Amino acid sequence: MSIHSTVGEVTERIVKRSHDNRARYLDRIAQAAERRPERTHLGCANQAHGFAACGPIDKERLREGRTPNLGIVTAYNDMLSAHQPYERFPPLIREAAREAGATAQVAGGTPAMCDGITQGFEGMDLSLFSRDVIALSTAVALSHQTFDATVMLGICDKIVPGLFIGAASFGHLPTVFIPSGPMTSGLPNPEKSRIRQLYAEGKVGRDELLAAEAECYHAPGTCTFYGTANTNQMVMEMMGVHIPGASFVNANTPLRDALTREGVRRALAMTALGNEYTPFGAMVDERSFVNAIAGVLATGGSTNHTLHLLAMSSAMGITLTWDDFDALSPVVPLVAHVYPSGAADVNQFAAAGGLPFVIRELLAAGLLHGDIKTVWGTTLDAYAIEPGLDAEGQLVWRDAAEKSGDEKILRSVDQPFSVEGGIRVLDGNLGRAVMKTSALAPERLAIEGPARIFHSQEALQDAFKAGALTGDFVAVVRFQGPKANGMPELHKLLPPLGVLQDRGQRVALLTDGRMSGASGKVPSAIHVTPEAVAGGPIARIRDGDIIRIDAVSGTLAALVGEKEWAAREPATADLSASHEGVGRELFAPFRAAVGEADTGATVFFRSAA
Fold it and tell me: Does a structural domain hold residue 337?
């Protein structure tokens, strides 16, 4: 199937605008690749330090320098359910490397924080910045220059993008991303959401709420709703940096272990010491990022990727913009309904056909670049397959399902849930914003209402508890951008706004903060840029101004006369309380240096955007 004309046009625009930066990046990694393997250029004392703690076989192989050495960068900790399974991965990886006649070493670790734990508390102000810290710590781990390839162990919200940015700085090395897999299904996500809303209304107590949450998040593995963590896995597979079908195989299973071993074998096969040298930074190109955007749109993925993909691409000299999302959205249909867009979790999605089915459908419609290179040693055309184990426990493959196993969850391109993708970009006199539409009823795609202004999510919650949020309105929660307080996710807004919407009020949210992959049924214009603390138009809104949020026309506007609007001074806010405590004082340089949301909200690569 030839590539869809719009997909081709968007790709060509990206290639053109990225030309100079991309050329400089490719030149840099080509120069780094000239030293192969890198560790043979180190001094004897340097090398001896690097293998001093190894066993005899590994030490001998490293001393000779003729076999590949695999660097493991791990985001393991046992506080995050998604990352706890990584505790047992290094021994598994080392064993697989030895079987292949190579060596593997843990190069270093990165932090991995959980938004689910910090949600609504001070630690969430560090969440987005943790992505860039992870990129820095990945660079530190690989700075010893003693590796021929790398594997990246990470799953959740900021971890995968951070690992990706760090790996891109060492783009001359082959890199495979290895997921840990989702936990098994627990309490259905809609039931969890219902109990949260009842708690917000005061109809159930904390004991009932905690019991429901513990039943939902109950085991090792990724959370089962389709938020940023699981969107990360989809993106990695669409870009060809996973082994095919690896994204949604449950944690701590024989199939998961087999896929991990296969990832190790592929990483070792791609080094400069063999005949399949595949540097990460050259393998991933503009087409790979277009595939990632198409995947986000087709599956109703996390809005966080309107930030992350921009930052990730910039690390490779490629310039994406929100306009690329907006141009692709009308031609990429929504083919998956996974919570919060639907009732199903990712395990049910996988059982219905999962990513292999989605990839096959999008390839057949010309909505993916099937000719991109992948870590599998093939092009993406070969990714419409599912992994399994034979009677001897060996990894085998079968073609993706011909039909969806459940059309409430997964559909063909010909009969989608929506003919357009799940994300729209809004523009107007309030700046630019992103809106997730995949979970919205059609009648909620456009809304007008008077502004109710808050400078924290706590202030809105207090107004809700006091019964002060009556009538139709647009909640304006500002001074939540990256420069203000690190751009936290504002999930505690959703239960009260959901309650009001269910009561018949027409409500919406407008914020320069984030809502991410768990954005649900309430219309939400998020990532507003320029942000309030930078004097953006959102800071000019006054209580009672009529606000229009319209995903159909792509409009974001305050319906205020031009002269009055131009004459208004932007509001200010005292943010000192959100700049200290829980480590936030250490991130003052990040708040000062960070770019706007529509350039990726990163402290890196701003000149590329």
Answer: no
Q: Report the binding-site residues for [4Fe-4S] cluster.
A: 156, 223
Token readout for 245 is 């079908």
Ranges assigned E (strand) in 158-275: 175-178
In a domain, 249, yes or no: yes
Question: Strand, coil or helix: what is 475?
Answer: strand
SS (H, E, C) 102-158: CEEEEEEECCCCCHHHHCCCHHHHHHHHHHHHHHHHHHHHHCCCCCCEEEEECCCCC
Which two three-digit tokens encode residue 207?
A: 């004991």
Structural domain includes residue 585:
no
**Residue with tokens 């990632």, as numbered in its chain:** 292
Q: How far apart are CA 159 and CA 152, in angstroms?
A: 10
Residue 603 lies in a domain: no
Tell me which residue range forms the domain holding 474.
Answer: 423-578
pLDDT tens sequence across 171-218: 999 999 999 999 999 888 788 888 888 887 889 998 988 888 888 888
- Please, which pLDDT band fits residue 517 given cuts at 50, 70 and 90? low
Give the domain CATH number at 500: 3.50.30.80
Number of H helices and number of E strands within the chain? 22, 14
CA distance 6 to 248: 30
In 389-418, which positions are buried (b, 16+ CB within 10 angstroms) versus exposed (e)? eeeeeebeeeebbeebeeeebbbbbeebbb
Number of domains the chain contains: 2
Look at residue 394 in the predicted model and tell me its pLDDT. 94
Query: What angle, 0 to 180 degrees and rounded to 10, lies between the N-to-C axes of helices 228-238 and 354-364?
Result: 50
Domain finish residue from 229, 255, 288: 288
Average pLDDT over residues 552-558: 96
Query: The CATH number of the domain where 85 resides is what?
Result: 3.40.50.2300
Could you give phi then psi for residue 424, rounded to 5 degrees? -125, 155
Determine the longest span between alpha carbons in the chain, in angstroms: 78
- pLDDT tens digit string along 83-139? 999 999 999 999 999 999 999 999 999 999 998 888 888 999 999 999 999 999 999
Strand partners, 299: none
Transcribe 398-430 into DSSP letters: EEPPSS-S-TTTB--TTS-SBSS-SEEEEEETT
pTM above 0.90, yes or no: yes
From the list 393, 389, 373, 391, the residue with the least C-alpha distance to 381 is 373
439: Cβ–Cβ under 8 A, 6 or more apart, which residues?
300, 340, 341, 422, 519, 520, 521
pLDDT at 216: 84
Burial degree of 588 (CB within 10 A; 0-12, 13-18, 19+): exposed
Q: What's the CA gap between 296 and 143, in Å, rounded?
A: 32
> Of 258, 288, 318, at which residue does a domain stop?
288
DSSP β-ladder status, 446-454 and 546-550: antiparallel
Sequence ranges of the binding site: 156, 223
Pair 168, 281: CB distance under 8 Å: yes
H or E element that contains 200: helix 189-200
Residue 299: which of 246, 254, 357 has the closest Cα? 357
Q: Which of 81, 53, 128, 377 is nearest to 224 (CA)?
A: 81
Are the beta carbons of 426 and 553 closer than 8 angstroms?
Answer: no
Peptide bond into 161 cis (omega under 30): no
